[in-house]
Amino acid sequence: MLKVTPNLHFRGQAKQAIELYKQAFGAEVKILLCNSDANPIDDDPSHNPDIVYHAEIYIGEQRITLSDNPDAPVPNTHPVSLLITFETAEDVKTAYNVLSDGATIIYPIQSTSYSSCFVSLIDKFGIRWELMTEQTER
Hints:
By secondary structure, the chain is of the alpha+beta class. It has a single domain (3-133), classed as 2,3-Dihydroxybiphenyl 1,2-Dioxygenase, domain 1. 17% of the residues lie in helices and 40% in strands. It has an eight-stranded mixed beta sheet with strand order 2-3-4-1-5-8-7-6, covered by helices on one side. The chain starts with a strand and ends in a 5-residue tail after the last strand.
């Protein structure tokens, strides 16, 4: 079953945003990984060690993911994306192959600390997408 998740991108203020959402909505933090927690393959843990690498909060039953991207190769004109969680890496690659035509690739297909298959892109219509599996070996 596909899952669609709002994914919020910040320039170093994700922790402050999480605190605000906790106060405003009673958001519950399920995962909070900083760069210092990241696998060195994903990112240099010493580079901005305190910024949010990947966070997941719940507002009610809605999952929302957040991350800091101060060095992102695109301006922060795309601070919100839609995160689609697939069952298998093959499903991610199939969707990526369709969306990548005319797209700007932000992060190529890769394995991360939180996903065994992840890719980020802005499609030819200007919509930012993150496609992923959960952290599995599928």
